Amino acid sequence: MENVKFTQMKDGDKADYDFLTEHEIEHTKGTADRLLKALVELDEGLSGYKITRLGHSLQSATRAWNAGADIDWVVSALLHDIGDIFAPYNHDEYAATILKPFVREQCRWVVEKHGDFQLVYYGEHVGANPNKRDAYAGHEFFNDCAEFCENWDQSSFDPAYETKPIEFFAPMVQQVFAREPYDEMVMNAAPPPLADNTVALSPAA
Asked: Class of the 12-187 domain?
């Protein structure tokens, strides 16, 4: 079988859907490669910073790596802005959706909310609420997101910072996206937080 027999999904039979399932599973094996290609394509997007969008992603991941973060954090830091080209108004949600089946909830939530948390640094300059993150006060991952933004995101626009190349991170991306999707042991894993969640961080923390 090279194609399904039906032209409407309701007319498909088990053979059609067995074929599609096998075909789609094989296609998913290339997800990591497509994401790495998309990272490189970030440089086709709007920049204006002192480093490129790809450079920012690599620097964020490098800072996470240098801080001793585990693979979920490093890959999340690398891909946190992957939606910049195709979803400029909700790039954080876009990235979190890509990561969701393969990383723990802690990392997914931080990536999803990092856009709101980043406003603490520049919201007042663009007519946005710099305290938008306060809506999540008390959340178990609040300080993790604040630390993520402070140490790995807002600081990663430095052309002088020694940043690792994409080839360094490629095996980590391959490893994460080779996991069984929606594995509860991965998604519900509860490692030590990035920050002491009993203390609210300020922008200068």
From this structure: mainly alpha
